[in-house]
Amino acid sequence: MKLILLGALSLLSTLSSCSPLSVFRERQAPGSYYSITGAKGGVHPRLEIRELQKTGEMWNLFLLALTEFEAMDQSEIDSYYQIAGIHGMPWYDWDGVATTAPNGKRPERGYCTHAQLLFSVWHRPYLALFEQKLQSIAISIAGRFSSPEKEKYQDAAQKLRLPYWDWAKAIPQSELVFPEALSVEKVEVTQPDKLKVQIDNPLFDYDFHPHNQAEINKTGCAGFGALEATHDVIHVEMAPAHMVPPAVSAFDPVFWLHHANVDRMVAIWQALYPDDYVNSCNAETATWTIQPGDPLNANTPLTPFHRDTQGSFWTAALARNTNDLGYTYPEIQNKPSNETLIAKIKELYAGSEFGGDVPTKRHIKRQDQGESTITQQYGLKVTLPKSGYPYSVFIFLGSVGGGAETWVEDKSFVTLTSTLGIASEKANQASLDITKAVEQSIESGETTEEKAVEYLLKSLKWKIGFANAEIPRSDMSEVKVELLTSKVEKATEEGQFDRQVGGYEPRGVVDG
Q1: For 294-306, what is each residue's pLDDT tens digit?
Q2: pLDDT of 446-463, one tens digit each?
Q3: Which range is the signal sequence, renumbered to this chain (predicted)?
Q4: If residue 82 lies in a helix (H) or strand (E), which one and from where to where?
Q5: Where does 47-328 sit in CATH, by number?
């Protein structure tokens, strides 16, 4: 991934009327829309990127297909460039779905439903579109191999799905959280002619061809809201790169693996709580086709994604079952019982250092069988005003030295939360669990359980930063950090989650 912003954080200049999209194919007549059906070949699991690397032919085919995908003519409706552009820039209609902005004025927002009820489910048909095109290229490449390899590659192509990057998974300290497959500039592949060659890693970055500065040059752009806050951390903490601002984030190949993981979290949540899904509310922010105040619910069209050539749109209700789009995830593919799924989640994330609201955030360590005690949980509520620019709030327990580039390595660092900063009158609310850090302070003798709240209000510190630079707190005076506590009953079995007893008790504002 190239550490460049492509001018994405440069100040707002005017879009040129000249565009490589001038040859973009309009698809407004019934029967001519782009039909998003998902991948072919039945229902197969999306694999974690490190697991996909172990698959031989499928991994090789994935790299070859992604390389051809990124090399497509940028004027094609299903090119990497055009599909990535749905999310934000270059702010043009896709598949004939026009903006609903007042007076037809082109807004500097894409179709993505950030900071809205439909955030996570909107990305489901979006990922399916990307996966559908990627697989179609893979099928074409597989057919170019000669027997007996050809049959192996054709089978791999039918099963190939978009991988996900599980950034929350507990991994050995010897391994990097950021997979090597995403950070190396060159990879070796076997071509259909059986030659092994080194190619540019298609997961490392996306090269615009051409890079039109008038098209990609500046900033822009409730429900599963807590999940969106966790999602924001990954985007913001990968700056400087294409993953932020959101107007250009979909051009970064990591975006697709990141959002596949977010979708996986939603799918796991659905499996655990099948009756909980999308409710109803009014939009608070605008997109290309949604205006503030518009009613949103499970039947709201997820524009610009058509289900058929006649122009029917996908909705959250229609996209509820991932099987209908040809994919599933390893944890849910055999429809496990809740007890089995919970045990798997605890196995994956026990000991994870990742901070944020994921379904397992309270299950930091395994509980002994038969243990049943009420314990204290410590948390922070962070108010993140939407300034129009991305930033992170870093939490420390004790003093912190050095520049922003070393904060996460400081021994006092506890966790962080982020916002993409999409301008809005309503601030984000993020919840952070700091129980593990408090338990460590008690074990080391720095405080006691009885004096923990007093200790925290005195010792907790926080700073604001973005892209390895500190932002003065005086510049972000509306950011607020509050200490909360609650009681938690520890699970007595592996197939159970800890259970919160009562609500959260406010303990004071953290001023450190």
Answers
A1: 999 999 999 999 9
A2: 999 999 999 999 999 999
A3: 1-18
A4: helix 80-85
A5: 1.10.1280.10
